[in-house]
Amino acid sequence: MDTMVGLKRTHSCNDLNKAMNGEAVVLCGWVARRRDHGGLIFIDLRDRSGIVQIVFSSDAYADIFKKAETVRSEYVLCVKGKVGLRSPETVNANVATGEIEIYGEELRILNAAKTPPFYIQDNVDVDELLRLKYRYLDLRRPEMQRNLMLRHHVTKAMRDFFDHNGFVEIETPMLMKSSPEGARDYLVPSRVNPGKFFALPQSPQIFKQILMVAGMERYFQIVRCFRDEDLRADRQPEFTQLDIEMSFLDREEILVMMENMIAYLFKETMKMDIPTPFLRLSYEDAMARYGSDKPDLRFGMELMDISDAVRGSDFKVFETVLANGGQVKAINVKGYSQIPRRELDGLVEYVNIYGAKGLAWICYTAEGIKSPITKFFSEEKVQHILSATNAQEGDLLLIIADKPAVVAAALGQLRLEMARRLNLIDSDALSFLWVVDFPMFEYDEEEKRWTAMHHPFTAPRDEDAALIDTNPGQMKAKAYDMILNGTEIGGGSIRIYNRDLQEKVFKAIGLSKEEAMEKFGYLLEAFEYGTPPHGGIAFGLDRMIMLMAKRSSIRDVIAFPKTQSATDVMTQAPSEVSPAQLKELSIKTDIVLKKPAGK
Amino acid sequence: MDTMVGLKRTHSCNDLNKAMNGEAVVLCGWVARRRDHGGLIFIDLRDRSGIVQIVFSSDAYADIFKKAETVRSEYVLCVKGKVGLRSPETVNANVATGEIEIYGEELRILNAAKTPPFYIQDNVDVDELLRLKYRYLDLRRPEMQRNLMLRHHVTKAMRDFFDHNGFVEIETPMLMKSSPEGARDYLVPSRVNPGKFFALPQSPQIFKQILMVAGMERYFQIVRCFRDEDLRADRQPEFTQLDIEMSFLDREEILVMMENMIAYLFKETMKMDIPTPFLRLSYEDAMARYGSDKPDLRFGMELMDISDAVRGSDFKVFETVLANGGQVKAINVKGYSQIPRRELDGLVEYVNIYGAKGLAWICYTAEGIKSPITKFFSEEKVQHILSATNAQEGDLLLIIADKPAVVAAALGQLRLEMARRLNLIDSDALSFLWVVDFPMFEYDEEEKRWTAMHHPFTAPRDEDAALIDTNPGQMKAKAYDMILNGTEIGGGSIRIYNRDLQEKVFKAIGLSKEEAMEKFGYLLEAFEYGTPPHGGIAFGLDRMIMLMAKRSSIRDVIAFPKTQSATDVMTQAPSEVSPAQLKELSIKTDIVLKKPAGK
C-alpha cells in the first residue's frame, strides 16, 4: 500500500468542471468502476461529493498504467492528474462531471478492497439484514450518504433557528430516575449504589420543565431517547427527539413559532416554501371528518354522517346501531362506481381488521343504483343519502354503522386505503396541520382507570380545570400535535405549573399521593418556588427526516439502526458479558450463559 | 394567580435603556428584591437577561399598589409599565439598566413562591448538596445562567465551524456492544434478548472509524459518553465529548484544523484572539522539561538535569541513584532563597506523595550558599550546579534524585505547587500546546503486559511499525493531546487502517485472536473493504467549558450533574425499581430490596 506523503488533496470529485480544463488536481476516493479499453484504463473515482472519470494511458505513464491495472472495485486511491475535456461523443450527461475527465499522472493505492457482498450503488435490491451487517458498505451508497447529509443539514438549520430566536440548547441527563408511566424504561444498574438502577430517558420532559422553573425561559435540545417497546416497522429502541420548552408564551404563540421553524427548515435545506399558518383542526373535528387524530389532508374523501338520512328505515342493522348510540357514516369514492364485486368483498374483510362488523355500499352507476341495502329504503331516503353525501353518477359510497370509535377507525382507514388504491395522493405534496383540543384523559378499559392522553403534565383548558373533581372525561387539554401527510411528527402542550392541579391530575390517573411523591415529588416541590407558565413540544427527528428524504423506513436515515428484534447485526449487540461485570453491578441474569464472553 | 391573557411580553429586562424613555413595555420575570419606601414599592425584576427596577406608586394605581404589596421574593410576575429615567442620585451603576426604571401600570402575579432555602445571587456560600437538591433555584443564579449560555454559544460555534469545513454531524448508537478495554462499561439489560446486555458508549471510537470506512470523510458529533469509574472531583459518570474524525488528512493537517477550531470558538464566544499555530512538544521533551505530559506553560521553572554536574561526589544518595540508572534534576525557584525552614520540611512531605524519598535544596542567599548537601561537593562542583541551573543570588534550587518516572512526577508536581504558592500563574493567560509522539505502549506492572497508551486503534509512526514484533516499548505513536493551562482538553491520533497491523497491536496488548474477533471482528473485517487513511480527536466538552468559564468544577457547567457518589440528589436517582421491571429484563439483584418502589 502507498501513503499520501507529498500529495495533498485539492478537490472533491464534484468540484471539478470544464472551466478547470488543464488544471492539476489531487483527488481521493473509492473505485466505483474500472474499464480497460484500447491501451487506456478508465476509473470512476467516487467520493462523498460524487464521481469523476480518471484515465490512465499506457503511452504516457507506463509504470502508473501498470499500477492502475492492479486496481479493483472499492480500492482507495489518491490520484494526481490534469483536468481535460471529453470529446462530445463521450460526454456522460448522467453524471455532474460528465463533461470532463482527469488524465492520471500519479497514482497511490491507499488501500485494497475485497469484492463487496453487494454493489455500491443506488436502488440496489439487497436484503436489509445484509445491508445492516455491512453497514459501512451500505452507507457508501450515494442515496444513504445524501440521507445522512440531509439529516446533518436539517439539524444544523434547527440549531440556527433556535439560536436566532433566543433558545438555549441545554443537555439533560441520560442516567435518570425510573418512573415508568407510558412505555417501558431501559434500566442501568448502578455499581456504586448496589441494588439501585438508573433509567435511560423516554424524554427529557421533567428536566425541561425544571429548566423553566430555573428561569432558562427558552430551551431546546436534540436528544437521544429510549423506549423498550416491541418494535414496529417505524420504531427504534433509541430515537432522536427535537425537544423544546418555553416560558411566558401562550399556545398560539408556540404554534406560530413552530410553524416558522418548519418553514425555515424546508427553505434552508430543500429550497421549498411551506405556507403558514397551518390549519388548526380540533380533535373532535379531525375524528369526525377523517376518523383520525392525524388526518392526511393531501386528499378529500371526508367521512360524512348520514345517521339522520338513514334513520327510520326497514334496515335493522342501521336501526339497531342508531338506537344504541351508534352512528352511520359514509365516504364518497368519486368516480369508482364500477368497483369490481371481488374488490368490494375484500373491503369488507379490510374494515373487519379495524373492528367494523360490516360494510355497506351504494354504486351510483349510469344504469342506476346498485346496492344490497337500498331495497330497505324509500326512494326519498335514498335521495337523502345521495344528497347528504354529494353523490353523483359514477360515485361509490362506502358506509359503516357502528359505535363512533369503530366507525372512525374503520372508515378512517378505509379512506386512506381507497386513496392509495385510486392513486389520489400526490407524493410531492406536503400537507401540514395542527390537531388541537385533545381530550385530557382516555378511559383504559383494561386497567379501569383514566390515563392521560398526552402525558400527566399537560394542562387542561382554563374553562375545564374545575371538571377535574367531577367529570375528567369531559376535559379538553391544551395539547397540540403537528401532522404532516397523515403522520404525527410533533406533539406538545401547555403544562401544568401549579402543585395543587398537578396533584389532582396524578390522582385522576390513579397515582396515590405516596406514589406521586415517590416519583415526582421534586417536581411538585419545584412548582412552589416560583414556576412560570410554560409549554413545549417534541418532534420525532428520525420520522421528520424520513419524510423529508421521501424514504419509507426510519432505518434509512439513521446511521446505525437496530433491527426489529432490537439488535445491531454489525457489532452483534446486545451480547453476553462476563460474570465479573455482572458481579460488580450486584446483579445476576436468570438466563444460563452458554459461554463466558472473555474475561 | 393571574394569567397573561391580553398581555404579550415585549422585552427582556436587559433590552431596556434610556433611549426608550416613555415607551410602554411588558416584562416577565422573577422578583429578585422588593423594597417599600414612602408610598412606593420598588421591585427588582429578574429574567434570563438581567435585572430592571419596577416602581409601583400608591398615588397613581392604588389597586395595583395593593397587589404589589403581596409580592415576595421569587414570585413570578408579568408587568406592564412605562420606561422612565432615574434621577441622577438614584442611578445604579452596578446594573446595566441602572439609569432607568419602569413605572408599573399593570401587574399580574403569575405564580407565588415559598422562601428559597438560599439567596438567588452570585458568589453565595451554599453547601453544594443543597444547591444540587434545589438545582432549579441554583440555576436561577446569574452566574449559573451565564455558564449554561456560554456552553450553548460554544457548541453552536463548534457546529458552525465544522459545518463550514465540510464535516457532517452523525449520530452514533447509545445502546452498543460491551467491549471493556480501559474503563468499566455501564450495562443495559436487553429484554428482547434475555441474558444479553448493551453497553453505553465510553466513546463512539469504533463507530466513527466505521463512518470513515463508509466514506463519510469528515465526521463530528457532540455526544454523551459514559464511564463507570470511581469519581474524582472533575469526573462525571456521564460526560460530553466533541468527537471528530477525518479521512485523507495527515497529522499536521488535523492539528492545524483543530487549532483553527479553537481560535474560532474563542473569537466567536469570548472575543479573544488565540495565536496559532500552537507549540508542538514531544512527549519526551514534555516529560524531561516539565515532568508531565500535560505541562502548564503559563510559567517557566523548567526541570533541569544536573546528573552530570553532581556525578562523582561524596554524596552517597546521588551516587547510588545515578549508578542505578536514575537521574538528578532540579528546579530553580527564582528569588525564593529566603524560604522558611518550616516550608522546606513541608515540601519534603509533599514530594513523598509522588513517590520521591527525599528532597535536597540549595538556597543561594546574600550570605552565601545554605544547603544540607553542598558539604559533600567540591567548590567547583557547586559552581557547576549553580551554572547548570542558572542560579543567581536570591534563588532556591529544589533537587530530586530518583528513577526518571519518580523524578518527573514529584518534581513536576513540585514545580506546579511552587508556582501556585508564589502566585506565578496568570489566571487570565491561555496557554495552548500540543504534546505529540507519545509512546505506543506502556507496560502494566500489575497485569504484566503492554497496554495501549492512547487506545489500541492508534497508529504507530511509519518508521516504528516494524518494531511491533520485536520491541513494542520503543514504538512511538501518531498520537497527540491538546493541552490548555496544564489540563488535557483533547486527545487523538492517526488510526490504524490495516487489518494485519491492527491484529498485531491487539496481540501486543494481550488479546488472543479469539478475543479480538469476538470484540472487534467487524472492525477488522471492515478494514478489508477499502478503508481510507484516517485520524481524529475528541475533546472533553465539560472541561473545556469549565476552563472558558473560569470555574473550578465541571459541575458548574453541567445543568444536572451527579454527585461524587454518582447520584442525582434532586430526583433521587438511581433508585430501587419494581420486581416486575427486573423480571421482564430477566435479571435479579443480589441486594435485598428494603421496600418495593410502587407497582
TrEMBL record, chains A, B:
Keyword Aminoacyl-tRNA synthetase: yes
SUPFAM superfamilies with a match to the protein in the record: Class II aaRS and biotin synthetases, GAD domain-like, Nucleic acid-binding proteins
Catalytic activity annotation: tRNA(Asx) + L-aspartate + ATP = L-aspartyl-tRNA(Asx) + AMP + diphosphate
Name of the top EC class for this enzyme: ligase
Calcium among keywords: no
Binding positions (L-aspartate): 181, 227, 454, 495
Site entry (Important for tRNA non-discrimination), positions: 37
Stretches assigned to the Aminoacyl-transfer RNA synthetases class-II family profile domain: 148-574
One term under GO cellular component: cytoplasm
Keywords assigned by UniProt, alphabetized: Aminoacyl-tRNA synthetase, ATP-binding, Cytoplasm, Ligase, Nucleotide-binding, Protein biosynthesis
Positions bound to ATP: 227-229, 236, 488, 540-543
Localization of this protein: Cytoplasm
Gene Ontology terms describing biological process: aspartyl-tRNA aminoacylation
Pfam families: GAD, tRNA-synt_2, tRNA_anti-codon
Family annotation (CDD domains): AspRS_core, EcAspRS_like_N
Molecular functions per Gene Ontology: aspartate-tRNA ligase activity; aspartate-tRNA(Asn) ligase activity; ATP binding; catalytic activity, acting on a protein; nucleic acid binding; transferase activity
Quaternary data: Homodimer.
NCBIfam families per record: aspS_bact (TIGR00459), PRK00476.1 (NF001750)
Family: Belongs to the class-II aminoacyl-tRNA synthetase family. Type 1 subfamily.
Function: Aspartyl-tRNA synthetase with relaxed tRNA specificity since it is able to aspartylate not only its cognate tRNA(Asp) but also tRNA(Asn). Reaction proceeds in two steps: L-aspartate is first activated by ATP to form Asp-AMP and then transferred to the acceptor end of tRNA(Asp/Asn).
Protein name per the record: Aspartate--tRNA(Asp/Asn) ligase
Organism: Propionispora hippei DSM 15287
Name of the gene encoding the protein in the UniProt record: aspS
